[in-house]
Amino acid sequence: METLLLNDEDVRDNVTMAELVPAVADAFAAYERGDAQMPPKSYIDLPQYDGDFRSMPAYLDVRAEDAASQWDTQEASPGGGWDAAGVKWVNAHPNNPDQFDLPTVMGTMIYTDPETAVPLAILDGRTLTMLRTGAAAAVATDRLSIPDASSLGIVGAGAQSYMQLRAISEVREIETVVIADLEEERVAAFVETFEDDFDVRGGTVAEAAGCDVLSTVTPVESPIVPRDAVGERTHVNAMGADAAGKHELADEILLDAKLVIDDYEQTTHSGEINVPWSEGVLDDDDIYGALGEIVTGKKSGRTDADGLSVFDSTGLAIQDVAAAHVAYEHATANDNGYAFDLLGLAD
């Protein structure tokens, strides 16, 4: 059996947000029901290079009833439920852009047949990560934001800001977008990209935080969003913190919010809550629940009585496997990518 090589363009061509958002929701459901395995994310710290590597393995078994709404076309559907396994090898090297003209984050995803262990595909993990991160925010926004949310604020105009808008606009009728960033050039590029489809403008952090939905996608280690800037019924996707010490939101926001996490171990170690958690500002009683609990109906999402809500996202390996599944199924159906005999088993 051959292995399919899917580069950046192949991944983008074969993964649409319309399909990825429900696929990631299915992954959260499977994880909550115990139909997934996800060992803890492991780190290799390289202070001499001001960087690190992260290994993220997972196995996912999606039930047929969860997968039914995932596919736009019958031809692309794998039929009923499915299971898959994979591992992502990803880095974070902040000095790459300035020193080597390389991205800060890169990655490689190995997507594997769990029955035979054959590597079905090797995918560009950087693009896959950007897509599934946006999709996770959309899953949370769909369950936690007000149903008629029409404005989206984004703090940070990097690559993930584009994914946040594309994904969240799949689940809410977004009309107005406020983008905040210290670099005017990045704000201008974002506005130019979306100005034909949205009422989009650059603004301050406070202006972005006053929208119906707010996504923060920065690597800061000192909070930049104050409590008094956030709308009383705003839903916040805290997406930037993915390592110990990172912290975008004022502690008062987390204390006042209906606080939902993706995974307990990851968020307390490296999510938005990791700093106030380590300082004893937050504890278990401050966490409402996990997103998987809301997706499966074990706990309620947005209610009429809810005010501010926060989703603390660290990014899970189950999301990578779900995204790789979507990419592989479509690439196979569309005859995309480069097939090669990695294992030397071809006839």
CATH class (first level) name of the largest domain: Alpha Beta
Question: Which class of secondary structure composition applies to the elements?
Answer: alpha/beta
Instruction: Compute the CA-based radius of gyration.
Output: 19 Å
Mean pLDDT: 93
Largest sheet: 8 strands, mixed
- What distance separates the N and C termini? 9 Å
Helix content: 25-40%
- The name of the CATH architecture of the largest domain is 3-Layer(aba) Sandwich
Detail the poorly predicted runs: 68-79
Q: Name the CATH superfamily assignment of the largest domain.
A: NAD(P)-binding Rossmann-like Domain
Give a nutshell description of this structure:
Helix content is 35%, strand content 23%.
List the helices and strands and how they pair.
Blueprint lengths: L2 E4 L1 H7 L2 H17 L2 E2 L4 E5 L4 E12 L1 H4 L14 E11 L3 H5 L6 E6 L6 E6 H20 L6 E5 L3 H10 L7 E5 L3 H11 L4 E4 L2 H5 L3 E4 L18 E4 L12 H6 L1 E4 L2 H7 L3 H5 L10 E2 H5 L13 E4 L4 H18 L3 E3 L7
Parallel strand pairs: 1-7, 8-9, 8-11, 9-10, 11-12, 12-15, 13-14, 13-15
Antiparallel strand pairs: 1-16, 2-4, 3-4, 4-5, 5-6, 6-7
Helix pairs in contact: 1-13, 2-5, 2-13, 5-6, 5-13
